[in-house]
Amino acid sequence: AQSVAQPEDQVNVAEGNPLTVKCTYSVSGNPYLFWYVQYPNRGLQFLLKYITGDNLVKGSYGFEAEFNKSQTSFHLKKPSALVSDSALYFCAVREPHGGSQGNLIFGKGTKLSVKP
Amino acid sequence: KAGVTQTPRYLIKTRGQQVTLSCSPISGHRSVSWYQQTPGQGLQFLFEYFSETQRNKGNFPGRFSGRQFSNSRSEMNVSTLELGDSALYLCASSSGRIAGGGNEQFFGPGTRLTVL
């Protein structure tokens, strides 16, 4: 069965420092991987995805993620954190079998707190 | 383009009642998925519709049902409400074709359901 793990409930970073939010996954075959962000009282916003190709994926708001097949990881990174990046971040996976677009399996989420 | 809209945004019901939530996808999107978000269980996939057909279903009891109309708008219904059904219900739409699963989903703001 598919699963996603986000080992850190919370990550604290000082503004201007690099940030990393960790994600590991377990699927059969090659996965589709996604990162979403959720601000308070809002729905989820898409940040980036890995489907195939270059292991380093660039997304919205300066975020990027690196797909590592051997470590089954898809960590989210940003070179310089902003206070406005403070939010809840979700990693998600979908097995690439034909037919379904919607059954994302989400991690528990990591709360990112960026202090000035 | 307008984003995914969900109505109502907030809802208070009592145990035993039923509720219907509505979702209008982004124009042109034919895939609509529903998720339940709770502090304890996180984000869980409920079901997915594509062209008025349910294509995938999560592990929820039969009290949870949905449908999709010819204009791609979707509704989900929960009958015989229980206290544990209190959650944020998120709808997401995708432009993906039937085959493949690499398209990102765009989420609405959610409907906050409180069951008393």
Keywords summarizing the entry:
heterodimer; A: 116 residues; four-stranded antiparallel sheet; 12 strands; 50% strand; B: mainly beta; seven-stranded mixed sheet; 0% helix
Question: How would you portray this structure in words?
Answer:
The complex is a heterodimer of chains A (116) and B (116). With 116 residues, chain A is mainly beta. Chain A has no helices and 12 strands. Chain A starts with a strand and ends with a strand. In chain A, 38% of the residues are buried. Chain B is mainly β and 116 residues long. Chain B has strands at residues 5-7, 10-13, 19-24, 31-38, 42-50, 53-57, 64-68, 74-78, 87-94, 106-107, 111-115. The N and C termini of chain B lie far apart (37 Å). Chains A and B meet through strand 5, strand 6, strand 10 and strand 11 of A and strand 4, strand 5, strand 9 and strand 10 of B.
Global shape of chain B:
globular
Q: How many β-strands of chain B, per DSSP?
A: 11
Task: State the major sheet of chain B.
Answer: 7 strands, mixed
Strand count, sense and barrel status of the largest sheet of chain A are: 6 strands, mixed
Helix content of chain A: under 10%
Oligomeric grouping of the chains? heterodimer
The chain-level structural class of chain B is mainly beta
Topology diagram in text:
The complex is a heterodimer of chains A (116) and B (116).
Chain A: E1 3-5, E2 10-14, E3 19-21, E4 24-26, E5 32-38, E6 44-50, E7 56-58, E8 64-68, E9 73-78, E10 87-94, E11 105-106, E12 110-115
Parallel strand pairs in A: 2-12
Antiparallel strand pairs in A: 1-4, 3-9, 5-6, 5-10, 7-8, 8-9, 10-11, 10-12
Chain B: E1 5-7, E2 10-13, E3 19-24, E4 31-38, E5 42-50, E6 53-57, E7 64-68, E8 74-78, E9 87-94, E10 106-107, E11 111-115
Compact overview of the structure:
The complex is a heterodimer of chains A (116) and B (116). Chain A has 116 residues and is mostly beta strands.
